[in-house]
Amino acid sequence: MDKMAIESSTSSSEETEGVFRAMADTTRQRLLHLLTLEELNVSELVEIMAQPQSTISRHLKILREAGLVRDRRDGTAALYSASAPVPMGAEDRSLSEDNLSALMLTWLKRQPLPSVTRERLQRVLQHRDASSGASFFNRLGKRWDELRTAAFGQAFASEAFLSLLPHHWTVADIGTGTGYLLPILAENFETVLAVEPAETMLACARQRIEDDGASNVKFRQGDLFNLPIDTESCDLAIAILVIHHVADPAKALEEMLRIVRPGGRVLIVEQEAHENQAFYERMRDLWWGFAPTELSRQLVSAGFKNVRHQPLMKKVESPEAVESPNLFVLTGERPDR
Ligand SMILES: C[S@@+](CC[C@H](N)C(=O)[O-])C[C@H]1O[C@@H](n2cnc3c(N)ncnc32)[C@H](O)[C@@H]1O
Fold first, then answer.
1. Distance 330 CA to ligand 1 centre (A)
2. Where is average pLDDT lowest: 190-204, 212-226, 314-328?
3. Of all atoms in ligand 1, which is nearest to the CA of residue 175?
4. Pair (171, 294) in one structural domain
5. Residues 172, 125 share a domain
6. Where are the alpha helices (DSSP H) in the chain?
7. Is the CB of 174 inside a 6 Å radius of any atom of ligand 1?
8. pLDDT at 98 exceeding the cut of 60
9. pLDDT at 133
10. Domain containing 198 — which CATH number?
């Protein structure tokens, strides 16, 4: 073993020892548990733990030295919280996601607090919020993003915008797949036409709507080259992640124009041009995505006006997320007669 390797293994075993020492005390475990849930000052911890300030301060010092707790100043007070895990490869090596401390904190955070402690914590937080109206959000800052997503997910705001569109519309979801969009379309529009060539997918979509209980979705087996939908009968035609599966996109766009009434709209979501072979093969794609300007040009050639495209925000949420192309949305309007 070279010198650097010996030094690094010594320091990591010292760290491990420090963590075990810090955790070998039930008061410190409880303190750390609280600090995985909330950022708290010493007097708040004194009240929740019902222990003298000198005891709390002594335990906090040990936890801080073990790298399990950090503090920051807020005016004259010091606020304590559990050290947050940092992503692998980041500069700060204090808590990478695979080390003992990070695992311990994650585990602690998931444990239920004893009811007495939980009640005291609630009381302290209520008191704090009552004494300073904005303090909750002041303290929270960027952590609100995490809290909002945990409580409400990420889709609700985009869903809310759908309610701005006219409810009386007839909307076609072409290449609906398993119909993941159908419940929300059914909620927002009077009539929804779900078109899909693959029988298995269509069965999943039907089941989804049966479970959902919506009664305004009509299913049709068919494809983009000969849509089983009357001419000029839709207010909006949607194709999400479908066009890169069709052999002749230009022809498909003309067929979309046919079913849309004058003044009606088209909405397409597509992959940007990419070179990700694994993805291309895995998804059995026919096209390596599209340059947004090129698909826009084709939409204009098909007869749509006011064509616009814009990138969609990419949000990779899980460590198992697949390396995938960027997406863009393309909209256009069928001119009035
Ligand atoms: C990547 S999936 C997308 C499904 C759904 N729109 C979604 O976003 O979850 C592509 C869908 O397009 C359908 N599809 C493929 N070729 C099609 C065509 N020529 N006309 C209509 N749909 C087609 C496939 O069967 C599949 O369900």
1. 17
2. 314-328
3. 22
4. yes
5. no
6. 3-23, 26-37, 42-49, 53-65, 100-110, 115-131, 135-140, 143-152, 156-162, 182-188, 199-212, 249-259, 277-282, 292-302
7. yes
8. no
9. 58
10. 3.40.50.150
Quick one: DSSP state of residue 313?
P
Ligand 1 centroid to Cα of residue 226, in Å, is: 14
- What is this structure's pTM? 0.68
- Count the alpha carbons within 13 Å of 246 in the hemisphere toward its beta carbon: 23
Pocket test for ligand 1, best of 244, 245, 258, 283 (most atoms within 8 A of CB): 245
The SS3 of residue 40 is strand
Mean pLDDT, the chain, rounded, equals 89
Residues 181 and 241 in one domain: yes
- Give the tens place of pLDDT for each residue, 221-249: 999 999 999 999 999 999 999 999 999 99
Q: 307 and 179, same structural domain?
A: yes
* Ligand 1 site, residue 229, Cβ cutoff 6 A: no
Q: Which domain holds residue 209?
A: 156-333
pLDDT the model gives residue 85:
56
pLDDT, residue 134, reads: 62
User: Are 195 and 112 contained in the same domain?
Assistant: no
The closest-lying atom of ligand 1 relative to the alpha carbon of residue 177 is: 27
Whether the CB of 177 sits within 6 Å of ligand 1: yes
Same domain, 211 and 249: yes
Q: What's residue 87's pLDDT?
A: 42
Same domain flag for 90 and 178: no
Number of neighbours of residue 270 by Cβ within 10 angstroms: 25
Same domain flag for 192 and 264: yes
Residue 69 has pLDDT above 70, yes or no: yes
Distance CA 250, CA 253 (A): 5
Domains held by the chain: number = 2
